[in-house]
Amino acid sequence: MPVQQPVSAFARDVLAERQRQILQEGFSPNHDAEHRGGELALAATCYADEAVTQICQPEREPCLTQLVPGWWPFEPSCWKPSLDARTNLVKATALLLAQGDAIDLQIDTELEGRPHG
C-alpha cells in the first residue's frame, strides 16, 4: 500500500534521523549490513526502553539516562540518549529502519549469488 499524505511529524523526524545517521555518522546501508547479529535492532530496543522509562517515570533523575544499558551492543561512547522520550523513540525507529534495510540488503545479496536456471 502506498504511503498516504500527509506523513506525520514523527515519521518525518524518523526519516530525517536516518538520513543524519547516514550522512553525518557515516552509517551507510553497506556499513549497517556488516552488523549481522541484530545489533541495530538491539540498539533500537535500548533507546525504546529508555523512552518507556522516561514516560513511566518522569520524576527519575535525568543523569540516569546516561547510564549505558547492559545489553547495549556497541562501545559505551556510542550510547547517546536524549532527555526526552520522543527523541529516543525517533532514534529507536531510525535504527529499526537501518536494521530492516540491512536485512533487505543481505537478502538481495544472497539472491544475486544464486545460480540462475
Q: What oligomeric state best describes the polypeptide chains here?
A: single chain
The helix/strand series, from N terminus to C terminus, equals HHHH
Approximately what portion of the residues adopt beta-strand conformation? under 5%
Radius of gyration equals 16 Å
- Amount of helix: 55-70%
* Structural class by SSE content: mainly alpha
The number of helical segments is 4
Alpha carbon gap, first and last residue? 32 Å
Describe, in short, the structure shown:
With 117 residues, the protein is an all-alpha fold. Helices cover 56% and strands 0% of the residues.
Secondary structure: elements and pairs:
Elements: H1 9-23, H2 29-33, H3 39-56, H4 85-112
Helix pairs in contact: 1-4, 3-4
What this model shows, in words?
The protein has one domain (9-112). 19% of the residues are buried. By secondary structure, the protein is mainly alpha-helical. The chain contains four helices and no strands. Helix 3 runs antiparallel to helix 4.
Which features would summarize this protein structure in a list?
single chain; 117 residues; mainly alpha; 0% strand; globular
